Structures are given as structure tokens and as C-alpha cells.
Amino acid sequence: MSGGGCSVRAIWILTPHDTVAFSRRFAVVEKRWRAFWEAEGGGGGEGDGWAAGVTAPPQLPADHEVAAAFAVRRKREGTARGSGIRTSLSSVGSDSWVDDPITRHVISLHIAKEGSDGFMIWPVVLQKRGGYYVLVLPLVDPQSFRAYGNLLKRSDCGSSGKENGNLSSILLNLPCITGAFMVAHVIGDIITGDIVEPEVIVNSGPSVGGLLDSLTGSIGISARSKPTAAPVAAPTASVSSPVGAAQSESLKGGVRPFDKDILRNFIIGAMPFGTPQDLNYANVNSIRTTGYSGDPLPTDQKQPAWKPYLYKGRQRILFSSLETIHAALYDRDDVSDFLSVSGQVTCRAELEGLPDVSLPLTGLKTAHVEVSSFHHCVQASEPTDNKQTLVFQPPLGNFVLMHYQAPCNIAPPVKGFYQLSMVSENEGAFLFKLTLMEGYKSPFIMDFCMITMPFPQRRVASYDGNPSIGTVSMTEHSIEWRIVSSGRGLSGRSIEATFPGTVRFLPRTAQRTNSSFRSVSSAAYAEDSDSEQDNVKNGASLDDYIMEKINKDLQAVDLEEPLSWQAYNYAKVSFKITGGTLSGLTIDPKSVNIYPSVKAPAEYSMQASSGDYILWNTLGKCPTAVLPREI
After folding, report:
1. For the MHD domain, which residue ranges apply (predicted)?
2. Which of 164, 231, 177, 168 has its CA nearest to residue 202?
3. Could you write out the DSSP letters of every residue in 144-158?
């Protein structure tokens, strides 16, 4: 990743308790900021964000001033992000006054100063990761800063898409916003320990194939070797948790301490003097530990920043199509089912030197790809007929070649219906009737499939019922039906599965006593909810608060309408399928070309898994406007 067109003035990381856990300022960028203002004739105009007549912007605020300003904004807007919507309680000069949802992620902070009106810093990119708030302040031109200051004082709403002076039109002219989001994202990954390379799947051995595949496929059992992840060199420094005694330190206020030395070293290597050069953690870490490659390069080639050293060893190139299918299946005539596929093509190029790779994508017309984006090393041709060619100089290690979204162009892997009816306050009767892999032929293989009936507001006491296939287990708040177990895949034919039964819950009095005990034991973590419950009365419409309320205890439902959709109205399907794509977008490994020509085999694997794959209860009320997040 490259943050071209972006320079960062400062970075702050705040805790949920409004204290600064980490900060970094870049004096070189700050000097450029002050020079811009001097060249523009100072900040003496209306809406500048500080008092009129001041010819130079003030210094960056101290850490405690930033923390105080962030706390004030959170109280004023209702949450850390706010709603981005102007309400009757919005005040002139606040982000919600702009009436644009982007102000939930690109915010302003008003720094209070004794004896003056203070000043404003903008645009501050906000991202919440691991309980921390990552704030990144990029360098912008004075004209854009003044334009936002004017929006804060406008009497009319400024979010009209046809209006040139709205916030979106201002941000579109600021590439530094995209760069700042990238910086905030990778810092969040380091804080949470999510620095992992993308997965590239390869077969652990040759396919059995032939007669054995035909025999086992005819009875619905896979005999192919299982895919495994391509080996990745372990990083020299771990970022999953702090070093030393901090690893055993318990959560404090809902956040886990992070290693500031790792973050500080990354910032030094990735964005020297405040300008992002390469935000790939693996590359920055490799450069720090091993330095740049000393191997001589051809005189007509330049070594790209994303490949700091050259590969040596057995040559090959691996591709994987990894797709996730999201579905809401209603089994109703009056409600249409929802199916969507999001996918990515990952690559690992173990090639010596700096070769160019040409890769044709096929199935574009069949896949009906709606959205696609590519790695910055890729040059993509215009799609023609049913193909598109990608030319790229691959970086080291695993990387995502492209992302895409498309409809599911074949039948749902799991379809059927689910019914649940409460026969008493503490007992419900349910029925599943499902069909798996109908219309899927070899080489499609379903590695596993499991159905989960969640009951987040009730504790399960017991269940009765025998499924036609698979095994059943029970947890405190769910029943899990494993139809296809790992190690015995389903291939070559479809199967039908039924599961009638009853579920019994503990009485509510015993449940509430237990819930009270749990709420006391988790009080420390509850404080990490932005303390937003106190601020909801301010009138903001808040996604975070709504989702938090959904996950909390609901009121007892009446037997006349027991199927409160948050609590009982769906079953979740989990599965993994290998051997093909659900969108139809594929790669022909035989058509991969490498220049200069080398003997390097190309391997290709495909895998699809379930995301939010929901079977809605046909007896209850179904929300049809949106596919639910994890409830």
C-alpha cells in the first residue's frame, strides 16, 4: 500500500477513558502547513477556525488538549463517531451541523484555549480499533480548511449530492484523506495484532483423481486431498501482544495494551518525515531487519518499493479465489431471497528477479462483476467480451490481487426452510427441511456444513429431536446441527436433511439472576461502550448504540408475538466449499504468462465460505430491508 499524495501532521491514539496512549508529530509537515498559510496571506478570513486577524495558525495542540477536545465532541455528538445527521439538538459549528454521514469518520476537533476562542483542527480521520480511537491529521490546503469552516456555519443542510460546496465535493479533491484512512487502518491492525498476510490456498498433495474420484463422488464422499495454506515466512517481531510482562496483563477498561516500540518503529520506516512511502507491515519489517536487496538489477529495471529484496529459490506462482456468500433466505412467495458474493483473488509469486506477470480473468460476462478493485501493482485492461487481462510486477509474500462483488450465479449451496413456534413460555417446536449442494457437480466439494439456532436472550435447558443426518450439540444460548463434518466432504450429489424437534429454556427468573451476575462481572468491559448510553438522550440516531441495544437483554416477549426477530427469528448457516467459485469468475493457470520467460508452474485453487448466511423463520416477521450483521 502506498499513501501517495498524503502527508500527516500528527497521529494520536486515545483510550476509551479520554487519555492519550500514543502520539506522534511530524515537524517537517507542520512547517509546510505553516508555510501554506503564510503564502495564503494568513488566516484572517471568516470561518478560518480561529480568531480573525491571526496571520499564522497555532501550534499543534498538546496531548491533553486533544483528549479534552475529543471528550467534548463525544458528549456533543452523542458518541465518539456521532450520527452525521443534523437534528434539532445540533449546534452551529458541530460536525452534525454539516449534515453529512462522512463526519462520523472525518471529524473536527475544537481546541479550547484560556483567554481566547480556541481553534479547530480538521480533517481528523477517526477509526476505532480494539477499543482504541486512532486519530490521523493529514496536511490539507488552506482553501479546503476554510471551505469546511464555512460549512460549519451554514443555515441550510450541506449534504446535497448536486451541490458543489458540500463536504463530499471538498473531500474528493483531497487525496490525503484516502492516505490518512490507510494510515489509520494499518495502525489499527498493529494495535489489534491483525498483521497477517492474505491466505493463499494450495493442495497439500496431488489429486487422487481418476476412477477413485468417480467412485467416491458417486456416493457423495470426497477423496481429494485437503487444501492447506501456502507457507509464509514468520515475521521477526510479533505484534499480536505486547512483550514481556504485558502479555499476561489483564484487560484494563476493555482495552489491551499494545507494544508502542513496534508501532513507533513501523511509523519511522513506513512514513519518514510524515509522508507514507510503504504501509505494508511485512515489507517495512523486512527492510528494518534485513535491509534492501544487494543483488544487482538489470540497468533497465527499477526495484519497486513493494519489493525491497529479491526472491531466491524454487520458482512458482500461486493463485486463490476466495469467495464469501451472503444470503437471506425467506422461503416465501411475497419476499424475494437475497444472495450476494464478495470475493478476492490472492497471489503468492515465488519468482526470481523482477518479472512481469500477465493474467487473464475469464467468466466476466457470466459473473456480472459489479465492483472490482486492484492491488496498486496491477495494470488492468478494459474488459472485452468475457475476459480482462491483468499485468503486474508482484510483490513478495502473499497479497490480494483484486477484490470484487458479484451476484451468486448458481443455486444457493444450502436452501430450504426453518420454522420455530413457541408452544409455551419456556418451550418451542422447530423444524428444518434443507437441500444441500443441489445442482453442484464435481469438482465442487462441501467440506463442512453446520446450522446454528441462536437464542441470545434465553438459556437453553435441553432439546429433543433426531436429525436425518449429522450430529447435534447444545451450548448455553444455541443449538448446533453439524450436517457435514470436516474430513468427510460432500461431492458429486445433493442430499436432503430434516430435523424436527423441540427446545426448552430455563425459566426467566433463573435466567435474570444469572444475567445480573454476568453484568456485574463484565462491568469493566461495559465501560468501553463509549459511555454512550448517557448521551443517547441528546437525540442522535446512532448505529453503534442501536447494535449495542440489540445485543443486550430484551424485554420479555408475549406469547401472542413470541418471535421477536432479534431473539428467535433466524438460523445461521456455516459452510465451506472448495473446487469452484459461486460467481463464475475464474483464472486459467495455463494462460498465465511470465516475462522474461521462466519455468515456473502456476497453481490455482478456489474456495467459497458462508458469511451472513441466514435462514429466516417462515413463521415470524422478517426484516427485509437489510441483511443482518452478526447479532
Report:
1. 314-578
2. 231
3. HHHHHHHHTT-SS--
